[in-house]
C-alpha cells in the first residue's frame, strides 16, 4: 500500500494547537514544542532585559533597535518563533500592524533546551542564514555557553564563544559589556 500524501502544514494547524505549545512551520512541516521551562525562560528574559535596555530603549546604550521576545516571523513560507529577535530601526522604522513580522530580523537568539536544541541548530539556524539574518546567538543555559554567529553569504561563521560568568561584548551589540552569568539561574 502506498503512503498517503503528506500535506504541507498551514497556519490553521498552528492556530489549532493547545495554548501550552508553540508551533512553527519549517519547510512545510509543523514543528511543536512546549512553552519554555523556568531555566530557559530565565535566560531569555534576562537577555531581553540586558540587550533591550541599551539597544531598544537607549538606556545606557545607543538605542536604534527593536528587541522582542518570541516574535512570530512569516518568512518565505516558513513560520518561525525565535526566543528573541532584533531589527535595526533604520531597516524597520515602525512595528507592523499584524501579529507577525514579514521583515527578516537583523539578529535572532535561540535559547537551547533539550526539546528544541536539535531543531534550533540543525534546521532553524541554517534557515535563518539562508533568509539573510545577519547575526545569530545560541544560548545554552544547561552548559552556560553563548555562541555568536555572523552570516557570511548565507553560511554561519562562529564569531565568538563565551562560557560561565565572564563579561562579554558580543556583535551586533558590542557597544555594551555585560555579565554572561546574569543569564544563569545559579
Automatic annotation (TrEMBL):
Task: Give any GO molecular function from the UniProt entry.
Answer: endonuclease activity
Among Gene3D superfamilies, the record links this protein to: tt1808, chain A
Q: Which residues form a coiled coil?
A: none
| Stretches assigned to the Putative restriction endonuclease domain | 19-174
Keywords in alphabetical order, please. Answer: Endonuclease, Hydrolase, Nuclease
State the superkingdom. Bacteria
* Pfam families given in the database record: Uma2
User: What PANTHER family does its record include?
Assistant: SLL0198 PROTEIN-RELATED (PTHR34107), SLL1222 PROTEIN (PTHR34107:SF4)
Q: State the protein's name.
A: Uma2 family endonuclease
Amino acid at each position: 500500500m502506498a503512503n498517503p500524501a503528506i500535506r504541507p502544514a498551514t497556519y490553521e494547524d498552528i492556530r489549532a494547537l493547545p495554548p501550552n505549545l508553540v508551533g512553527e512551520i519549517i519547510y512545510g512541516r509543523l514543528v511543536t514544542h512546549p512553552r519554555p521551562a523556568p531555566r530557559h525562560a530565565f535566560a531569555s528574559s534576562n537577555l531581553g532585559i540586558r540587550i533591550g535596555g541599551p539597544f531598544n530603549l537607549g538606556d545606557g546604550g545607543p538605542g536604534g533597535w527593536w528587541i522582542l521576545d518570541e516574535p512570530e516571523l512569516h518568512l518565505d513560507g516558513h513560520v518561525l518563533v525565535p526566543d528573541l529577535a532584533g531589527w535595526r530601526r533604520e531597516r524597520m522604522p515602525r512595528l507592523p500592524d499584524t501579529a507577525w513580522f514579514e521583515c527578516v530580523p537583523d539578529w535572532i537568539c535561540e535559547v537551547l533546551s533539550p526539546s528544541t536544541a536539535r531543531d534550533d541548530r540543525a534546521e532553524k539556524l541554517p534557515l535563518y542564514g539562508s533568509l539573510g539574518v545577519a547575526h545569530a546567538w545560541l544560548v545554552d543555559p544547561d552548559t552556560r555557553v553563548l555562541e555568536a554567529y555572523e552570516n557570511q553569504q548565507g553560511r554561519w561563521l562562529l564569531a565568538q564563544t563565551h562560557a560561565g560568568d565572564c563579561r562579554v561584548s558580543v556583535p551586533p551589540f558590542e557597544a555594551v559589556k555585560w555579565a554572561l552569568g546574569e543569564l544563569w539561574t545559579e
